[in-house]
Structure formats: C-alpha cells, structure tokens
Amino acid sequence: MLTVHKRGKRHADLLIGRIHAVRGSLGTRNEDAARRFKHKLEIALAEGCASSLWHELRTLLPRETFARFAVFVGVKEQPLPTWSDLRKVFLSLQNSESSLESLLSLRSRGTNTHSLSSNFSCPSERLPCYVTSAFRLSRNSRSGA
Q1: Global confidence as pTM
Q2: How many domains is the chain built from?
Q3: What is the pLDDT of residues 15-65, one digit of tens each?
Q4: Is residue 23 in some structural domain?
Q5: Which of 61, 46, 74, 47 has the alpha carbon at shortest distance from 4?
Q6: Residue 103 to residues 30, 107, 118, Cα–Cα distance (Å)
Q7: Distance between CA 66 and CA 74 in Å, rounded?
Q8: Of residues 62, 80, 81, 79, the one with CA closest to residue 24
Q9: Which regions of 1-145 does DSSP assign to beta strands (E)?
C-alpha cells in the first residue's frame, strides 16, 4: 500500500504489511501535486518495470526517490539516444521510404505500359483473373461459340 505523509515536504511510503519497503520524498509541499504523483507511482508499481510511466516519473520525482522505487521494481536504466543514433534511424527510414517509392513507381509504369499495348497474346500473365475471364467470355461470344 502506498501512503503519503507530510514531513516538511510530502513523502511516499510503500508498505508491505507493516514493513516500509520503500520511502522517499515526492519533492513537493502541494497536497494535490503529491496526490497526482502518488497515483502515477501506484500505476507504475502495478504495471511493473515495463510501465511507460517510469520515464515520466523520472522527471517528476527527486532522483533519490525515483532510484529507490526503480530499484525496488527492477526498472533498468535506458540511456537517452544521441544525435548520431537519431540521425542513423532517420536515414534508414528515409532510405526505406525511397526504395518503397521506387518500387511503386516501377509497378505503376509496368501496368501503364501493359494497358497501352495492344498485344494480348497471353493476357493471364499480368491481368487479374476476373479480367482474363471477361476477356475470354467476350472473345467466345464474338466467335459465335
């Protein structure tokens, strides 16, 4: 159970039975802010080390308090990305988008060329099955079969 007590600033105490498992300052004297911090901390504790709230709590709570709760839950420190890491990700995404655009343009060029050509000796190679069956039906009806 997580409780908040006033000791100058507001403090959070995580109790397991009657034992204080983790205790730390919330870094505020404001009761409403302390209540919001407590709520977010309770959710993060319930979700465990994979919770997305730990990133937000890192900025809200004092370092010592965050470290105590993070160690208790088992949150692993993830280093912040550097500019070179972000640039690599951006360039790889940009390259994948350009290759996808080039594939799409090749596909559209191929279908335009095929639709403009008048040679239908083997229509089933590029046309969908409903088009080829309609082509066969119209061809058979013309020949009187």
Answers
A1: 0.53
A2: 1
A3: 888 888 888 999 988 989 989 999 999 999 999 988 888 888 998 999 999
A4: yes
A5: 61
A6: 58, 6, 25
A7: 12
A8: 62
A9: 2-7, 9-16, 19-25
In a domain, 44, yes or no: yes
Structure confidence by residue, pLDDT tens digits, 91-135: 888 888 777 777 677 666 655 555 544 444 444 445 455 545 555
Pairing type for strands 9-16 and 2-7 reads antiparallel
* CA angle, residues 102, 104, 107, in degrees to nearest 5: 110
What is the distance between the alpha carbons of residues 58 and 117, in angstroms, rounded to a whole number?
64
Alpha-carbon distance 95 to 89, whole Å?
Answer: 10
Angstrom distance (rounded) from CA 133 to CA 135: 5
Q: Residue type at 79?
A: P
Is 79 inside a domain boundary? no
Write phi, then psi, for 20 (nearest 5 degrees).
-80, 110
Q: Which domain holds residue 52?
A: 2-73
In sign, the C-alpha dihedral spanning 68, 71, 74, 78 is positive
